[in-house]
C-alpha cells in the first residue's frame, strides 16, 4: 500500500504521524511510505532519518495526498486539507468529529474512509489509541495550570506545592479516567491538595487504592461541584464521552462563585469541552479570562511536547497501521473488532452511532 504522512499544519502542532521506526516496519513489508519534507523536524526526526529507513520524501502536502492510498496523521484535517482528500482514501488520525460540524460535513462530502484514533476500542472498553495522548494531556494540565496560577499571568499567585509554613494549592479534577488519574499523579507529586470527582464509584475506588492519601475522592454532582469550586485554585476538566460531546459540568454562572485568579484547564476541549465557557485556543494564544477566571483550553496540548507524544503515539498506532496496509481497510476491520469501532465516516455515510444526528 502507498502510505502518506503529511506535515501537520494546525497551529503550533509539531507532532508527526509516524516515527522513523514505524516507517521502517512498513517499508520492510514492501509498503511505500511518502513523507512530506520536514514533517518530522518538530518532533526531532529529520528527512535523512526517514530516507535511511526507505521513505520517499515529497516536497508538498499536495503530492503526499495525491500519491497515497492511506493518510496517517496526528490531528484532524483542517480546511486547507479538505479538498486534498480523495474518494476511497483512508484517513487514519484523531478526528474528534463531535466538536466540528464543518469537518464532519467535509469528510462526508469527500467520500473517504475516516478511521478515528479516538474511537478504536479494545475488548475491555478502553481506548488504546487515545490513552497515550490522554496520559500526556493529563500530566500537562497540571504543568500548565501551575504556570497560569502565577500572578503575572493573572492567576491567584499560588505556588501549587506550597512551602513550609504555607499551605499547598488545591486542585479539583473532574473525571477519574486516564486524564484525571494522570493529572492527580502530577498534582500530588507537586504536593498539592487534590480532589478527584467522578460518577463511577468503581473508578473512585481504584483512585483511592493507587494514589497517595492526600488525593481525596468525591462523587460528582452539580451540588458538590458548586461547593468545591469556591475553594480550589486549579480546576481540570477531563470528562470523556466516547465519540460524543462532553457534558457541561461547569456553567457560566458558576464562575461567579470562584475566587479571582482561579485557573480552569479543559482537557475535553477536543470533544467540545466540559465547561460552558470553553472555546478552543492555541499554544500561540493559550488563555483568556472571563469573570477574572483564567481559561486554558488548548485543543492540542500534547503538541507542545512532540518528541514524547510522537513516540508514544506510534507505539500504539503502528500495529493498526500495519494491519490496514497489509489487508486493506475492509478486511482489516472485519478481522479486528477494535479497529472497526474506529470507522466514523465511510464513503459519505456516518458509521459511528454517537455522531448520528449530532449536527441535525
From TrEMBL:
Name assigned to this protein: Alanine dehydrogenase
Protein residues bound to substrate: 15, 75
Organism of derivation: Polaribacter glomeratus
Ranges annotated as spanning the membrane: none
Tagged with keyword Oxidoreductase: yes
Keyword entries, A-Z: NAD, Nucleotide-binding, Oxidoreductase
GO molecular function, one term: nucleotide binding
InterPro entries hit by this protein: Ala_DH (IPR008141), Ala_DH/PNT_CS2 (IPR008143), AlaDH/PNT_N (IPR007886), AlaDH/PNT_NAD(H)-bd (IPR007698), NAD(P)-bd_dom_sf (IPR036291)
EC number of the protein: 1.4.1.1
Enzyme type, top EC level: oxidoreductase
Lineage top rank: taxon: Bacteria
GO BP field: L-alanine catabolic process
Organism classification: Bacteria, Pseudomonadati, Bacteroidota, Flavobacteriia, Flavobacteriales
Active-site residue numbers: 96, 270
SMART domains reported in the protein's UniProt record: AlaDh_PNT_C, AlaDh_PNT_N
Residue sites binding NAD(+) per the record: 134, 198, 203, 220, 239-240, 267-270, 298-301
A cellular-component GO term for this protein: plasma membrane
Occurrences of domain Alanine dehydrogenase/pyridine nucleotide transhydrogenase N-terminal (ranges): 4-137
Catalytic activity from the UniProt record: L-alanine + NAD(+) + H2O = pyruvate + NH4(+) + NADH + H(+)
Amino acid at each position: 500500500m502507498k502510505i502518506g504522512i503529511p506535515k501537520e499544519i494546525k497551529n503550533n502542532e509539531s507532532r508527526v504521524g509516524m516515527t522513523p521506526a514505524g516507517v521502517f516496519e512498513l517499508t520492510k513489508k514492501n509498503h511505500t511510505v511518502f513523507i512530506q519534507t520536514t514533517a518530522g523536524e518538530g518532533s526531532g526526526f529529520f528527512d535523512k532519518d526517514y530516507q535511511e529507513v526507505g521513505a520517499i520524501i515529497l516536497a508538498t502536502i499536495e503530492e503526499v495526498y495525491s500519491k497515497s492510498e492511506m493518510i496517517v496523521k496526528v490531528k484532524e484535517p483542517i480546511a486547507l486539507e479538505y479538498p486534498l482528500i480523495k474518494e476511497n482514501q483512508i484517513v487514519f488520525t484523531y478526528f474528534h468529529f463531535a466538536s466540528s460540524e464543518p469537518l464532519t460535513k467535509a469528510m462526508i462530502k469527500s467520500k473517504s474512509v475516516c478511521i478515528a484514533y479516538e474511537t478504536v476500542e479494545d475488548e475491555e472498553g478502553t481506548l488504546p489509541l487515545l490513552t497515550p495522548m490522554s496520559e500526556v494531556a493529563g500530566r500537562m494540565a497540571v504543568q500548565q495550570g501551575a504556570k497560569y496560577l502565577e500572578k503575572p499571568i493573572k492567576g491567584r499567585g499560588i505556588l501549587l506545592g506550597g512551602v513550609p509554613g504555607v499551605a499547598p494549592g488545591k486542585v479539583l479534577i473532574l473525571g477519574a479516567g486516564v486524564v484525571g488519574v494522570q493529572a492527580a499523579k502530577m498534582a500530588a507529586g507537586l504536593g498539592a491538595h487534590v480532589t478527584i470527582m467522578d460518577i463511577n464509584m468503581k473508578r473512585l475506588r481504584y483512585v483511592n487504592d493507587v494514589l497517595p492519601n492526600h488525593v481525596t475522592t468525591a462523587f460528582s454532582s452539580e451540588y458538590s461541584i458548586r461547593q468545591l469550586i469556591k475553594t480550589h485554585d486549579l480546576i481540570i476538566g477531563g470528562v470523556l464521552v466516547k465519540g460524543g460531546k462532553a457534558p457541561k459540568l461547569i456553567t457560566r454562572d458558576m464562575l461567579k462563585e470562584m475566587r479571582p485568579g482561579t485557573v480552569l484547564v479543559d482537557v475535553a476541549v477536543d470533544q467540545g469541552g466540559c465547561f460552558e465557557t470553553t472555546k478552543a485556543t492555541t499554544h500561540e494564544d493559550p488563555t483568556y479570562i472571563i469573570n477574572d477566571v483564567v481559561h486554558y483550553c488548548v485543543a492540542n496540548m500534547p503538541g507542545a511536547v512532540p518528541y514524547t507524544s510522537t513516540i508514544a503515539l506510534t507505539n500504539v498506532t503502528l500495529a493498526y497501521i500495519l494491519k490496514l496496509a497489509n489487508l486493506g481497510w475492509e478486511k482489516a476491520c472485519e478481522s479486528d473488532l477494535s479497529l472497526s469501532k474506529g470507522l466514523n465516516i465511510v464513503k459519505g455515510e456516518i458509521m459511528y452511532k454517537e455522531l448520528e444526528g449530532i449536527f441535525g
